[in-house]
Write a structure and sequence with these properties.
With 400 residues, this protein is an alpha/beta fold. 38% of the residues lie in helices and 23% in strands. It has 14 helices and 16 strands. It has one domain: Rossmann fold, CATH 3.40.50.12710. Helix 5 packs across helix 6. The strands form 3 sheets. Strands 2, 3, 4, 5, 10, 14, 15 and 16 form an 8-stranded mixed beta sheet that branches. Strands 1, 6, 7, 8 and 9 form a 5-stranded antiparallel beta sheet that branches. Bound molecules: S-adenosylmethionine. S-adenosylmethionine (SAM) binds next to helix 4.
Length: 400
């Protein structure tokens, strides 16, 4: 989760190094040039795409440290091995059912989850034929390689980095933790006069500002459907996001899975809750140096920008791609159902300090005010029999 602490803007300013300031200036200049070339306005989805992924410049394409203590945020696998133990528990049952198979991890961060999964599965005698990692970030791929080489020794040879999803059909498991929230979203404003698309203009050369235009037909139609799904009582000026790339992207990265399951972890909500009338400013959130803020124009290239996931849209994408929606629950219930108590005891052994540390980590992963409720887990499955581990304790599919 983008876990963060608070801090004053001046503390935040002092955290920027000269190198970072130069980098941000280059990113600003790049985006501003595109805005000018487009006639003075680009959609927010394009701005987000450039800020995160512009080659050599974007947050995920360039050198920002991103995860961990020296980075911008931390995630469940960074917090505790208990997360990897839970994913391994659910994944083991899938791999046993398909008789081996491969694992594809999308967006592997520091490589920690990959290391945990390979170790926990190995301890149960399960050795996936391949462990593929698909990640857009060259900097993170290097970190993953270094982390896994040190941790796994020769077993690192099973890990392979891909530039695109596998072409050939395969059986096994796909895992993605906190990747969907980075997909570029369109931003809209609803009003009695119609729907507007909120995009980006430049002021004073490279300062970005929100700027509205009448929405095109696709966005206007989508907004009408989202509003209906949420009960239809948005006030004039209601703003939120819509992610048109979710369905094509999720379909593409899972296309080659012949038999097995996909586990999606992220912060998000079913559509009717996501687009509640009370959530009138949407869910965009930025992170830099463990601090969160909502202005996506503040630190282009230095800050992560993300939006919550509409899990109803994700279920529709799975359904459209021919998967069964095999499970949907909160992270807390997923961890409970995969046996977090037993994992904690096993990892702690006879060491009471270790047990206390793990119990604290478990609280961060499970408490409603931390990651337990905000984070959801969805499973897609194809040609699998029976219920998936992790989803039986609290089945929330009826909320989608
Ligand atoms: C918030 S981090 C989460 C990392 C890791 N899963 C974890 O939980 O610690 C997002 C990860 O997804 C990767 N990523 C972002 N967009 C992606 C995309 N479109 N395709 C593949 N990887 C992507 C990033 O480089 C990064 O490794």
């Amino acid at each position: 989760m983008r876990i963060y602490d608070t801090g004053t803007p001046s503390q935040r300013e002092s955290a920027i190094t000269d190198v970072e300031r130069d980098h941000e200036a280059r990113v600003r200049a790049h985006i501003a040039a595109e805005v000018r070339a487009a006639g003075g306005w680009i959609g927010f989805d394009r701005y987000m795409e450039l800020a995160l992924y512009a080659p050599g410049l974007g947050y995920y394409s360039a050198g920002a440290h991103k995860l961990g203590a020296g980075g911008d945020f931390t995630t469940a696998p960074e917090i505790s091995r208990l997360f990897g133990a839970a994913v391994a528990q659910a994944g083991a049952e899938v791999l046993e059912q398909v008789g081996g198979g491969a694992i594809l991890e999308i967006g592997a961060g520091s490589g920690r989850l990959a290391g945990d999964l390979i170790e926990f599965l190995g301890a149960r005698g399960i050795v996936p034929a391949r462990y593929w990692i698909l990640d857009v970030s060259a900097e993170l791929r290097d970190r993953q390689r270094a982390h896994l080489r040190e941790r796994l020794g020769d077993r690192v040879e099973r890990v392979e980095w891909l530039d695109a999803p596998p072409d050939a059909p395969f059986d096994g498991l796909i895992v993605a933790n906190e990747v969907l929230d980075a997909l570029p979203v369109m931003r809209f404003r609803w009003g009695r006069g119609g729907v507007e698309e909120l995009g980006v203009e430049c002021r004073d050369g490279d300062r970005f500002e929100w700027s509205a235009r009448p929405a095109g037909p696709a966005l206007a139609t989508a907004c009408a459907a989202l509003r209906d799904a949420a009960g239809g009582d948005w006030a004039d000026g209601y703003e939120s996001e819509w992610c048109p790339r979710l369905q094509p992207w999720a379909t593409e990265v899972t296309r080659s899975l012949r038999t097995g399951a996909v586990l999606w972890f992220d912060y998000g909500l079913p559509r009717a809750h996501y687009y509640f009338a009370e959530r009138r400013q949407g869910t965009l959130i930025c992170h830099h140096r463990h601090r969160a803020f909502d202005d996506p124009f503040a630190r282009p290239g230095l800050a992560d920008i993300s939006a919550w996931v509409d899990f109803t849209a994700l279920a529709e994408a799975g359904d459209g791609a021919g998967f069964d929606i095999a499970g949907y629950t909160t992270q807390a219930y997923f961890l409970a159902d995969t046996g977090i108590d037993a994992h904690l005891r096993e990892l702690a052994g006879a060491d009471p300090r270790q047990a206390a540390r793990l119990a604290n980590e478990a609280r961060r992963l499970m408490m409603p005010g931390e990651m337990g409720e905000r984070f959801k887990v969805m499973a897609w499955s194809r040609r699998l029999a029976g219920a998936l581990r992790g989803f039986t304790l609290r089945d929330l599919r009826h909320t989608l």
